[in-house]
């Protein structure tokens, strides 16, 4: 799979919600979120499934790696790309922790980042 981010990145955060935990098998997912139209699949086509009333999850059809979350918003669709799937995962650094109410307690986090019980003001959604 190859993709390109052409649009602006509205937010970069760690999501600790139960949906992300279950979909990724991890205590949190680091996302870069922006407009849906800003993501182009350039090699291969991901597969997707409606994971909840608010969105669809996309994954690699060959290896099953989780790639993205498409959010259905009244103002327009958003797309969150998993930072771990970037060619350089250090290129973008998360700026906050979201959905801390469902954080797994043993998961060590960067305490210097702002923490929110909901998506937070920098969520991009």
UniProtKB/TrEMBL annotation:
Keyword Zinc annotated: yes
Record InterPro entries: CENP-V/GFA (IPR006913), Mss4-like_sf (IPR011057)
Pfam families given in the database record: GFA
PROSITE patterns assigned: CENP_V_GFA (PS51891)
A GO molecular-function annotation: carbon-sulfur lyase activity
CENP-V/GFA domain segment(s): 1-117
Keywords: Lyase, Metal-binding, Zinc
Family the entry assigns: Belongs to the Gfa family.
PANTHER family: CENP-V_GFA DOMAIN-CONTAINING PROTEIN-RELATED, GFA DOMAIN-CONTAINING PROTEIN
Name the UniProt record assigns to this protein: CENP-V/GFA domain-containing protein
Organism encoding this protein: Inquilinus limosus
